Amino acid sequence: MKKLKKYPVSLTKALVILMIISSVVVVMSLNSYLDRAVKNIFADMNEKLLKNDSELLAQRMRAYLNQPHAAGKLMSLLAKDQNSASSEVIEQQLQQLVSLDLTQGQPLSSISFASANGSYTALQRDPQDGKFYPMTSTVPTSQDVLKRLWFVHARETSQPFWTEHGHHASAEKGMAITWRQPIRDPQGNFVGVISAGILPADMSQWLHSLDSTHSHRLMLLNEKGRLIAASAPVSADEMTNASQHMPTSAQDGGILYPAIGHNLMLNRPITDEDGLLKWTLVMLTPDNQWQSSISRYHQHNFMGLSIIITLSLLVITFLMIRFSRPLVSLIDRVHLLGTPLWTTAARGTLFPEVASLANALDNKSRLIMDMLEARQDQIERDKETGLLTFAGLCNHPELYRGRNMIALLHLSNHSSLTNLLGKEYGESLLAHLQSLLKTLLPADTILCRERTDKILMIFPEIADSDQAALIQQQLETLFLSHQATSEGRHELLIAGNAGIVEEPLTSERLKALVLNAGIALHHARKEGNGVVTRFAPEMHELGLRNVELHEELSHALERNEFHLVMQPIVSLAAEGECLEGECLVRWNSPTLGFVPPDRFIALAEQTGLIIPLGYWIIETACGELADFIARGAPANFKLHINISPLQLQQDDFAQELLGCLQRYHLQGANICIELTEGVLLDDANSVLPQLNTLREAGVTVSLDDFGSGYSSLSYLHSLPFDQLKIDRQFVSDILEDRRSESVIASVLSLANSFKVPLVAEGIEDEETGEKLRNMGCLLAQGYHYGRPQPFKNWTVKLGVFKLTLI
Fold this sequence. Notes:
CATH architecture of the largest domain: 2-Layer Sandwich
Number of strands: 27
Structural class: alpha+beta
CATH class of the largest domain: Alpha Beta
């Protein structure tokens, strides 16, 4: 090694030496690959021979299976011409067919014809002389034939079919496999059915005769992997192995598998001319006869080459460790590139190329450090506004010095106005906001552009709550109209919200405080433009509760936690008679307990879970209504179902609802869907076709909470509805508030003009109900008549549902 240091070896020479050594190893290893190639050649030859044998056997098997098919086809042509011939004529035709048209030694064991009236003529083959004779002792009667399942199936179809393992006509013959061809005249009338049968025992003898040397064992399996016939006895293990490797398709060319006893197994799909049978021909054959000698030869070569390769690897490993040590040293330090920790590489290395690389890395490290220092200000400063970025904020030296309040401001109109008026307007709007903040806020406030349209403000130390309130007021003044100024032809109007957090700043809590400021900002945005909200712990807890509620809601359907209740809608003129009711959903969560509908329905609509929940409600409500009517409720009882706007917008909504009615044998008039008037006004083009489809089927539409949506009466005449439900806020004040009474009177007049009934919701006492009845209201709903209960709790009898009013 000392002499080697005096004569430095280049990396190129070192690689050449390594390649020479590797080449020697490759050449020596080639012998092993040649051995494997020889083995593979003989294995391929053996496999091809086996596949050719199996293909020939498969072709002969297909021809064998097509003989019943051919016999049936020939007989069907004769039977079509003489569909009224006597059994003697049919028997003569069968005899002519088997004696002249079919050669001796064919696989048929029987052939028969059953006419449309049940007459049965059959021939069976004598195993002694191979000839066919009339079947007499076991011929079934016409009544028996007409009841046979195969005869019933043949009468209903025109296609041929197989019946496997049906009992043969003679008991000693065992179980037969029969091909059957339904016969119909030119007018399509059923004439009869031709049957041609074969015996598995005959098939086994035929398989045995296929291989004169008996070097192969053949099995025939059906599509379920059950044994039909075999050329020799088969063990249970061999059957299990064969059934586990059934062909996956009719085009499978056959694949070799290892079998029991170190044999090979090849499976091929077998079918008949019509592709009705999906059988498998299994061939068990001895293993490759050259396998043992090739294995011994390969074993000796492998042991010798293993020793050579091991020694070569040891030498290469030593050389690589010695030659690569300087390069490894550079690699170990490369992660320090461009940092002050990078040190100059040691000189005097063995390889000049490595020394050159070390010098280049030294130069690059200095260049990177210079570039990072030059761009540090760009990284920590927003290019558009000059404000700190969040990375710059985290490195600000004054960030944690006594500061105890932050605010996150969202400029809500920045994105829309920038897209509409251009990037220059957006930059001017931010510059205007920045100018206002510097004017209104304390001088030592740190500003950071946290997002494109969000400004994070870190205030100096706040002494008391009065000072915090003052800063909150100053932020609110940003969104007043008089703060607007002009930019070209457009005003720079500040619109948005802010969220404030009061808590001492620390490096550990900075991200959490920014997150809390975002939560407060979210609450402020929900209250409207210009609102500034202080963060409270309840906001975070509410968010966590909403997350928990969402998680539980997403699993509530699959856990079957929902149930339906029904509140009756009574006729005010009929003293408690009830022909309608409103279906309501309730949720008892094992984790959260009873969850009010207004909480989980709103969340379901926000998250899209209302769609599967809505379909569950429709399906379950139709089932409950069908049971309710079957139990004694009026057959024309109408169930009201509240439909979400999001659900109504689904393309398949109408078809799903009509499908439920059909499944539960209900009429369209049994269902009324309740919608808010806003749904029809906001998205009329997409929902009107669905509503028209439902109304054509008899489903009615009720406008729920009418009067609370402030809809224009000019649109009301074009909306499809069959009923109005006035909002409960007017009903609850009708006895004390003359204005509520006037509103109800107006809506009643409107309902009468449209010739639709009005339902008054929220009736709690008899006086309110009596007042509405005297005013002309027809239908009422409320706790006075009945609280929502499960369907099974309501008493119905003989088609009558009448409530007892207290």
